[in-house]
Amino acid sequence: MTLFGKGEGRVCAVAAAGTAAEMSRQVRRASRSARTVELRLDWLHSDDQRAQLIHWLKAHRPASVTFLATCRRKEGGGKFAGDIACQLYWLSQAREAGCQWCDVEMETFRELPEGFLRAYPVPPRIMLSIHDFDRTPNLPRNVVVARHGLVDAVKIAAQAKTIADSVRLLKVARRSRNFVAVPMGDVGMPARLLALREGSELAYAPVAEATAPGQVSLEETLGLYRPHLLDRKTQVYGVIGDPIGHSLSPLLHNTGFAARHINAVYLPFLVHQLGDFLKAIPDFGVRGFSVTIPHKQAILKHLKECEPLAEEIGAVNTVVVRRDGSLYGSNTDYVGVLRALQKKLSIRGSRVLIFGAGGSARAAASGLARAGAQVCICARRESAAKQLAHAVGGEVIPRRALRAESFDAILNATPVGMHPHEGISPLSARELQCRIVMDLIYRPERTKLLEAAAQKGIATVSGVNMFLAQGFAQWEIWTGKRAPEAAMRRAVVSALRWRS
Q1: Cβ of 195: how many Cβ atoms within 10 Å?
Q2: Superfamily the domain 334-466 falls into
Q3: Is 296 a catalytic residue?
Q4: Do 238-332+469-499 and 334-466 agree at the fold level?
């Protein structure tokens, strides 16, 4: 038995707010799904607000929840401006209100006499926390809690600048007991979600505002990633890219796994350097991954084998990790483009302009050329446009000529206009001389480019259709099963409309 029980008890909901009223609302909300809640007393604006929360907790504390009180001083990376005496006072008040655990940062712990905390009336179970918000420091092979004095658990939270940093912290969790591993930052987020599987006692998730970089909301943690259900048999998949925060691929694929009751999870990996991720594949147990900007072409040289069409395209968006660790690449982007466009256009014999010359553009161009379209390429880099046009037997159209040319369809294959930069369009309305405009961007669902096209009376095709089709194909490559398309589509469309 772990310190915080099994299952959902190991996901710690973080309640953090400036007022007692808001924090109590967060506690009520958290207690509907979580069995462990951290109270960030240092986030409350004043001692009066802290007193109000303690008073509320004494009267309304949910009996089924284990509470962990934290009143982290500024010296330890928190918001509490008081001294150690004041900090310990509020922790003792938390004990009176029924908190079973307290978190005391190393900056406070090292200033107290040995054994002092056990004699002081703070909550009976003590977690010693060590934070490094700048980097992942040199780590011990394992942590033996007894060496740190009279505490019940040790937490190390460290900023992961590389995926390798997060792997080092997970390895400590694997070898330690009564230990909490918290890889911080967007790069460390997948390891944060896998920490419970590796032996960490807790994984933290904010009820509302994030209290540390790289946190995933309580709702997404429990509903989408379900880290408390992951085990050594869980198959790990993911998407690699830079940026990656906009991606709805985790929602798409995890919905599919849940619908088909498959023990698998799909995680977003922010990858600055491709080699950093590739070295970590065995440590995470990755079985396959999606590839997005800017790695679709660079991944080719790391593959042992590649689907002939993907090799011809010169870009890969889907990778299978074989049992021997070798990588097999394929491309489902072209499938998504063709399926989405075929509903509005007879592709054979049509004249289609692709704006862009990256990995997605290469897939679209190859797929359309194979389907019999006359492909035209326009890109910021003329050399890249010429290279792609030559590869598919197409022609290059300079940007300055767009107003005078006409096309059956124009496809945007650049990231211009993608969340969080929705306010811009890659092309002006006067450059849209066509019957159909398709944007490969799916978030937002209706981009500025599509709005401009619609205002001119041009038919539009959202990138959502392409995203779903290529995602279904990926899911089936990895699982060997038919994708639950209806459930996956509902989840993505609902999320896009809710966020718009």
Answers
A1: 28
A2: NAD(P)-binding Rossmann-like Domain (3.40.50.720)
A3: yes
A4: yes
Report the 10 Å Cβ neighbour count for 207: 26
- Render pLDDT for 120-143 as a digit per residue (tens, 0 to 9): 999 999 999 999 999 999 999 999
The CB density around residue 313, as the number of other CB atoms within 10 Å, is 30
User: What is the CATH superfamily name and number for domain 238-332+469-499?
Assistant: Leucine Dehydrogenase, chain A, domain 1 (3.40.50.10860)
Instruction: Tell me which of 6, 74, 296, 301 is the catalytic residue.
Output: 296
pLDDT digits (tens, 9 = 90+) for 343-400: 899 999 999 999 999 999 999 999 999 999 999 999 999 999 999 999 999 999 999 9
Q: What is the residue extent of each domain of the chain?
A: 7-232, 238-332+469-499, 334-466
The CATH homologous superfamily for domain 7-232 is Aldolase class I (3.20.20.70)
Q: What is the pTM of this model?
A: 0.92
